[in-house]
Amino acid sequence: MTKKRFKNDMRQRLKEKYAMEITDASPQELFTVLGSVVRGLYSDNWRQTWKNYLTEEKKQVYYFSIEFLPGKMLKSNLLNLGILPLVREGLAEMGIDLEELANVEKDMALGNGGLGRLASCFMDAIASSGLPGNGNGIRYDYGLFKQRFVDGYQVELPDEWLRSGNVWEVRKESKAVDVRFSGEVYMVPDESGKLKPFYKNQRILRAVPYDTAMIGYQNDVVNTMRLWGVEIPTSEEAKYTSIQDRREFEDLTAVLYPDDSNERGRMVRLAQEYFFVSAGVQSILRYFLKLKKPLDCLSEFVAIHINDTHPALCIPEMMRLLLDEQGLQWEQAWEITVKVMSYTNHTIMAEALEKWPIDLMKSLLPRMYQIIEEIDRRFVEKKQLAYDDSLIQRTRIIQNGQVHMAHLAIIGSHSTNGVAKLHSELLKSVVLHDFYGIYPDRFNNKTNGIAQRRWSQLANEPLSAVLDKKIKTSWRKNPEDLRLLLNYLEDEETLKELAAAKQENKIRLADYIYETTGIQVDPTAIFDVQIKRLHAYKRQLLNLLHILKLYFELKENPELAIPSRVFIFGAKAAPSYSYAKAIIKVINEVGNLINNDPTIAGRLKIVFLENYNVTLAERIIPAADVSEQISLASKEASGTSNMKLMLNGAITVATLDGANVEIRDAVGEENIVIFGLTEKEVYAYYENRDYSAKALYDESPMLQKILNALIDGSIPNIDFEGQEIFDSLLKYNDEYFLLRDFEAYCHAQETINQWYQDQTLWQRKSLINIANAGRFSADETVQRYAEDIWQINPTKSGGENA
Fold first, then answer.
1. Can you say whether the dihedral through the CA atoms of 584, 589, 592, 594 is positive or negative?
2. C-alpha closest to that of 113 among 152, 74, 137, 145
3. What's the mean pLDDT in 452-464?
């Protein structure tokens, strides 16, 4: 690809598609044409990659995830193809700004947070590592939701990401499959006397795949993310006679995580999970059968990975296909299934481990329930000879009127991994201890990683330019080479250049904040960032309590010698999570109070940027000075924003939770600010039941002042929300120990103030964080999955140009 050819292709495609010249086209039309040109550049490699997998008979991994959060793909695709500068320059010569076209693209916001973003980082890393891998998920008609603030409250609006189509996807009608729901299933003997399922009154839906290319980083490998859309089969159209009937079927892939506070919502959620699992497993087995290999060799060609419990139905669905359609005996089918399946656990919190009522499973997925029931029966029967009955009852899949999906995932797979060292240890010692006793060899750790190309090369071009100048460009392919930056730890010029890159990003973010919120912030202030889902255990509220402390101190002493601070939040609360939405309201109202108080002279500002998504993260993270990772120890499985912020030179304020432990080990205790309870201390409180939030409140005049402000009118417009939060901390005894960690957190923030006032010291610590971020690359993480769990190897050749 040359610049001349690129410009000619743009003009020619524009004429073909819209019959117009460059000067007449809108940004949307130009973006669509550019996407078409880019697709043309990788289509041969996409086809060739697939052919290589076939001819080399490569074992492939299929990564099943109910969430994928790719964000925008234009610049990522250009970067991975190695033509980002060429396209930027070519467009500029035609009078077109690449950034303007990139802004046209809608985020593929098909995820809620870390789970979906991790899945997308893995898709990038698998392709960039030359590994044969595919994503499998749902093509939601709407993204999670578009968050708006109205009078400080979160309001959810539809995220119509497909309004202008999706230039990156390819609809594959020829690969569609049928998925069965509801009705009744009877086991009846066939001519040979073998029991076969007989289906009655089934509802059949058509699953149609939409494939998106996952382009490896400058290696000509192009893998596939397959998202399933739902349609009515022609044979079933007579059953959908009313608008209401059609709406019910369309709801299946309408939104991620429909409200499960009612029976209808729970049914849609379970139907979603089976829909994409059944479609995906059917398509995998169909591919395998074309290889003409024996079924007992399936695990030599296929690995299926269950990303959290949502795709756990992969296990009984594979059993269904092997038993009912391929005619295998149970024992043989079970051995094959366990060898093929692996499972990642993403949570420590018991309430987040999925469970489905037996009656719902029976009515919606009758054959799945029959198979799960038999898996459970055989598990109990087999373990009775070796384990206490109480242990067996605690670990069985069906208990207390519910189907436990995590239990199914562990029993039906050969590997269960956590996503950080601490998380994996807690799974073994606490959360899944019973299962670890039964299957010790199945448990392992795979610390999460991030697609560092997106979070450095794309999101932070000023920093990337400094790195290229100082350590050359090998870090772009091998993130571990970031360690070369340590050679410049005492180099004042390098420290100044890193500081200048950070300042450029802060000015850019300050401009965006003013454009979108009208709030004017000082780009020389500390940019203190907390970006993640709004959840009580992530403790955005602890951050707010400290902000109120600073505010009250500045009110009493306007000459207080502390650096100016801009506290930046980005977070969505689940629509039915009223407590999290109350916290959003209170943060916004405290922001209104502080931001408009002339007596503190702008030394504190609160900015809550609405509709947090991948694109907004790419604006915030490069500008961050401080990374808030303050979840209660033992609650966060890993975290990945901690890794992204570290990579971009932010200093981490953290509890010893999730991957924060490994970040501390990487950078050294002197380059991170650790505070608060350890997981052992948290569990001691649980065991002894001796925690008293009221006692802490009674002993601390500052805590009294802060908490009383929630209910005494000091903060306007929070009568209900302030009382709810006040009660959660005192009346209901502060479930996540904010008051216990408050003093330690304030000391941690004082350390940040001291460090920041010595800019040479600060820049050295920032450099050390950047230099040690390479170990948290998703490339490294998927390599460990590939070797230890999936047993897959890189392809010998990439695309046609390899």
1. negative
2. 145
3. 97
